[in-house]
UniProtKB/TrEMBL annotation:
Subcellular location: Membrane
Species for this entry: Muricaecibacterium torontonense
Record's protein name: YhgE/Pip domain-containing protein
InterPro entries: ABC2_TM, Phage_infect_YhgE_C, Phage_infect_YhgE_N, T7SS_ABC-Transporter
UniProt GO MF annotations: ABC-type transporter activity
């Protein structure tokens, strides 16, 4: 219905057409304006003022003014708008904005530049003034090596100084007399000797770097074996832990199954002592009739006690063997763990559990040993009492009292051993088994992670070895070039030294006039930098297109919510028979999405076929622009429906934040910390990354990742528009009523 009404009304159709066109114009003008700004550097006015006083040394009566030669060379250079003027006019022009910058050649420029002819050389300098107020990037242009203008100035001066140096040395060769020529030649020979030594030393250093890279390459190749060893070590550690866990588990199970038997045995021993005590009481109760019979009964009881002692000794031997097994297990695990520099939490837990189990075993052994000793003493005492009764050296009452005390002590020892086992040994072994099982599980997970990591390291190592081989070859080539330059300088030095030794002034003059270019390298030595573009972009306009396209589509979405009604009127709702909030939201959203699609299609078509920006993936570029426009429209529509005019303001604020913080002009790493913090949550980030991939080329699965990131903004927009806005309906109506009551807003 919305589309039908819009197309049936001429004025509405014209407005809709304007809504589609305006965002594209915004993007096209900005892209065209930033298409290739550095091609027009010749229009930048840079003033040049020469105050050079020239140079005349005691060695040569010739006056040389390098500043004049520099200005002459700059007049012929059309890459920058050089204007030769006075120092006062240059500085005033920079302050007033008439000139973008000014270069002042100082009075001592020639003296410092030709300082190589003196024993106290100085570095020559040019004064460069910039009016940073005139342009936002003026400071960047002059202080950063990446600035095209600054590089051009450096290159121009380097070439000019090199040319000046050559002509100056030619003039020297033609002018100087024999004495001056000989002195100059001697100084040049000394300088050439120093230069040759420097070149040779540098070549040796570069050669050493090549050898170091070669060693690194061997180290990387050898790391494959180390990776395999680490994988085997990880497997061995896991196997050891699994074996330890199984061993302790078996030990725990064995003790668990024997627990009731051991406990029953100790309980039986304790109960038997109660029976023995009752037997002793019974024996002495009938002692009046026959002392011999009492003695015989006591000897029988002593025999029973010896049997109980043997049972306790058997338990003592079993616990001793178990203690030894635990100690052996601890030693083995400690050896395995010590192969690493640092123990993990799980490994420390295993060793602590083993220590507690060993301590509990020692206490159990001490208790069993005390019980065995007590039973032995009790048996011996009963036998002795039986003999004393036979001999008549003790009374039955004394014997009974003494034996009852000994029986009670033995019973206490057996009960203590039983308590130590039940309350100390068994729980410590259970804790030990659990700790080792957890450590084995951790080792298994560690092994899985290390396997994948070591596999990746193996692949990376192969790639690194290839890169190191390329670096080694490059360093060897540089070393060879430096050695070649050293040989050339050495040859020139030897020729000049031979001419000086022979006092052949004409030969000296011929050498100076013959090779001025080599000697001029003392004055200027520009470095050639080879720039290799990865995912090259043809021009600055294409590089800026993702930023301006994203901004234009967001502006288009804002224009839509400003010009179109986001909610049906009450009359429309009545005609449609009443609408739910969801139906009203989705129904009106339709015309917004149609216009947003047309905006994106027109913008992309103009970029590609009118401006002809670079684009490696035309189809994906159209798809990206349309999806970006639909997502942006959903966001601004949800904000406006939910918050009314406040939502429109929020959409504008969000646009401003994204212009500054989405990394469109500067890398995000160069932005202030608050912008870096919100960077991942800005829709512009995903849209620009998608468009950059379409323009320059796509790496791996980056396109899919950023596409999912862009579509992820649909979810919060729909949740806000369909769910969260319901409680805000009355508040929005109240705000609109208050604004309307002002008769202004």
């Amino acid at each position: 219905m919305d589309l039908h009404r819009s197309t049936m009304n001429v004025i509405a159709g014209i407005v809709c057409l304007g809504l589609v066109i305006v965002p594209s114009l915004y993007a096209w003008f900005n892209i065209a304006g930033s298409w290739d700004p550095y091609s027009n550097t010749k229009n930048l006015k840079v003033a040049v003022a020469n105050t050079d006083e020239g140079y005349t040394s005691d060695l040569m009566p010739l006056s040389i003014n390098v500043g004049d030669k520099v200005t002459s060379a700059l007049r012929e250079n059309d890459q920058i708008g050089w204007l030769i003027t006075s120092e006062q006019d240059a500085l005033e022009g920079v302050r007033s904005g008439q000139y973008y910058a000014a270069v002042i050649i100082p009075p001592n420029f020639s003296r410092d530049l030709l300082g190589m002819l003196s024993a106290d050389p100085h570095t020559s300098a040019l004064d460069f003034y910039v009016n940073e107020k005139e342009n936002a990037i003026a400071n960047v242009v002059t202080s950063k090596a990446s600035s095209a203008l600054k590089n051009q100035i450096d290159t121009t001066f380097a070439q000019t100084v090199s040319s000046v140096g050559s002509s100056v040395l030619g003039d020297l060769g033609s002018y100087l007399g024999s004495d001056e020529m000989t002195q100059l030649a001697n100084r040049i020979v000394a300088s050439l000797d120093h230069t040759q030594q420097t070149l040779t030393s540098t070549a040796a250093n570069v050669k050493s770097y090549g050898a170091l890279v070669s060693s690194a390459k061997s180290l990387v190749e050898g790391s494959a074996g180390l990776v395999g060893t680490e994988k085997n070590s990880t497997s061995d550690l896991q196997d050891a832990l699994n074996g330890a866990s199984s061993g302790v588990g078996s030990l725990k199970d064995a003790l668990g199954s024997a627990s009731s038997t051991v406990s029953d045995a100790l309980t039986s021993g304790s109960d038997s002592l109660d029976s023995i005590k009752d037997s002793i009481d019974s024996v002495f109760d009938k002692a009046g009739s026959s002392t011999t019979q009492v003695a015989n009964d006591l000897e029988s009881i002593a025999g029973t006690l010896n049997g109980r002692k043997e049972a306790v000794d058997a338990l003592l031997g079993g616990f001793t063997a178990q203690r030894d097994q635990l100690q052996e297990l601890r030693d083995r695990l400690e050896d395995e763990y010590n192969q690493d520099n640092q123990l993990t939490a799980a490994e420390r837990a295993v060793l602590r559990s083993l220590d507690r189990a060993l301590e509990a075993s020692e206490r159990a052994l001490a208790s069993l040993s005390a019980a065995s000793q007590s039973l032995e003493e009790l048996g011996a005492e009963i036998s002795q009492m039986a003999q004393e009764l036979k001999d008549g050296t003790t009374s039955a009452a004394d014997a009974k009292a003494k034996l009852e005390g000994l029986v009670e002590g033995s019973k206490t020892s057996l009960d203590s051993a039983k308590g130590t086992f039940n309350d100390d040994v068994a729980p410590s072994l259970t804790s030990l088994s659990e700790a080792i099982t957890q450590s084995a599980d951790d080792a298994g997970a560690l092994k899985g992670g290390l396997d994948s990591t070591l596999q990746a390291l193996a692949v990376t190592g192969d790639s690194a070895a290839q890169d190191l081989e390329s670096i080694q070859e490059a360093l060897d080539k540089v070393s060879g070039d430096l050695n070649g330059a050293s040989e050339d300088v050495s040859t020139l030095k030897e020729r000049l030294a031979a001419a000086v030794a022979s006092q052949d002034v004409e030969s000296i003059r011929a050498i100076l006039a013959e090779d001025p270019q080599e000697l001029s390298q003392f004055l200027s030595a520009p470095v050639d930098l080879k720039r290799v573009a990865v995912f090259p972009v043809a021009n600055n306009g294409s590089a800026m297109a993702p930023m301006y396209n994203s901004l234009a589509l967001w502006v288009g979405a804002i224009i839509l919510v400003v010009m179109l009604k986001v909610e049906p009127s009450k009359k429309e709702e009545a005609q449609l028979g009443g609408l739910t909030l969801t139906q009203a939201y989705l129904g009106r959203l339709g015309i917004f999405l149609v216009l947003a699609t047309l905006q994106a299609a027109l913008l992309c078509a103009g970029d590609l076929f009118y401006l002809q920006i670079q684009c490696e993936h035309v189809g994906l570029m159209f798809l990206t622009c349309i999806l970006v426009s639909l997502v942006f429209t959903n966001i601004t529509y949800a904000l406006t429906v939910s918050f009314g005019d406040v939502g429109k303001a929020l959409a504008v604020i969000l646009m401003v934040i994204q212009i500054a913080g989405a990394g469109g002009s500067f890398p995000v790493q160069m932005l202030p910390a608050p912008f870096q913090a919100v960077y991942p949550f800005l829709p512009f980030v995903q849209s620009m990354q998608l468009m950059r991939g379409c323009i320059g080329g796509i790496y791996g699965n980056d396109f899919v990742v950023h596409l999912l990131g862009l579509l992820g903004f649909l979810a919060p927009a729909l949740i806000l528009g369909l769910v969260l806005r319901r409680p805000l309906v009355r508040l929005n109506h109240w705000i609109e009523h208050q604004l309307a009551s002002t008769k202004v807003m």
